[in-house]
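Fold this complex.
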Amino acid sequence: MINTTESTSAEPDRSRPRIDLSLRGFLSRWGQEILGWDGPFWRSLRQLMLSPGRLSKEQVDGTATADRPVHPVRLYLAINILFFFLPPG
Amino acid sequence: MNSANVSVWSVRQAGIIQAQPALEVPLRRAIERSNASDEVFLAVLDERLAAQQGALVWLLVPAIGFASFAVSRRRRCYLVEHFVFATNFVSFLLVSLLALGLTVRLVVGLVGADTPWVVLALVPIVAWLVWLFMVTYRGAKQFHGFSGPWLTTVFTAWMGVALYLGVWLYLQALFLFTLIGLRDLHFPG
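Structure:
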């Protein structure tokens, strides 16, 4: 017999932490990560400028669990956007 | 058309056609197909190359990643690990080149381009080269696990060669892809 109660249930899973899907929540989160000086993006950028080798080691080995650095592709894309707005030549 | 007369963007940057005469063949064919004079076609090519120079920067990532993997796969056996390092290294290059470009422009703007003091613009360039060496040296020690000054310096020099070859690959690909993009361009008359 097929149990249809799970597949048709529209009830959200209350045990999981909820993500703020409002525009205000999205902008707040975005601002915290990008504009906050101690956010992961700026922390990773500072480390990138001084020792990209250590940053790569932390990203690969997962040694920095508390201050997890930004994913390298994400950092690369963000820097490309920066490059787009501020061309060096 | 003599290769010495070509003045497109990539040639000014790295003398790519002079060092790679085979690239003259597709360039000549493209000019003949477009029905335009050399000057007009090269001006259009120059403009397109300058506009698209950022599109293929990602080619540096596999170049540096494979170079890193080739010399230190015993210490870090997964290719992806080296690609992570290469991605960060290219990100570093982009940001440091951005800082270098802005600093040189600032120095030239302050002293004036026509004065002998314009040689001061060499200071940030030398500082950037030292910075690049230090970062690569540290990376060799911290990420790749090289120990000892000689081994680390040899690895740093190898990364410099890989970077040069990567830029070379990038410029060739940029030139060819831009030329292919101009294939259907026809000039009136």
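Chain B is about 70% helix and 0% strand.
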